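Chain A, query sequence.
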Amino acid sequence: MGTVEMLTAAGIGTGDEVVVPSYATTDAAEAVRRAGATPVFADIDPRSLCLDPASVAASLSLRTAAVMPVHLFGRHADLAGLRAVAERRGLLVIEYERAAPADESTRRRQENAFYLNARLRGVETPTVPPGDLHGYRSYVVRVPGNGRPDRDAFARALRARGVRCHVPVQTPVHRLPSFRRELWLAETERAADQCLALPVDASVTQRELHRVVAACNALGGLLPAAV
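Chain A, predicted structure.
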């Protein structure tokens, strides 16, 4: 059963609101809209980059019918925390997609990520609390600084050195013309300015991983916007 069908089967439609993350693709918000409901955007936890239960709680209204977490980049959303918030109001928690089970590709990505975690300097590597799981569908680091030019200049310099990288979320959904909302989501904005995805896919070679480490560490963190 697809997400729209799950929402419809739960009786969610016109007049209802569903809380979704803005730091994601538009898919979850579009599914809510196709079901006839209204997406409401909440902020993310800065470590998991998934919905923050406290922000979700602050975004609830009398029209809220459900919360829709998105498992992002291989990290699991805080389902226990989100369900605790939802249960206090009798709301549903409907995952946009179930977290994928681990397979050989997952294990290879994890090995590659552990290699980078142990060696990268000048960027903030993913934080995974003890006992939590990360499938590393994307290996997302932060290039902290004063805003988008720092991260973007860093990315250009990496590409010039032969390192594949991309910005995982170019624009938060709530700032896109089709979903524009006048609100400030501090952690979402910070992630959109700082996050950069580096290669850890199952096909990446040890040589490529070494190039990633050498290039990142040689750059030493921030670069001016003019680079």
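The two ends are 48 Å apart (CA to CA). The beta strands are 17-21, 38-42, 64-67, 92-93, 139-142, 195-198.
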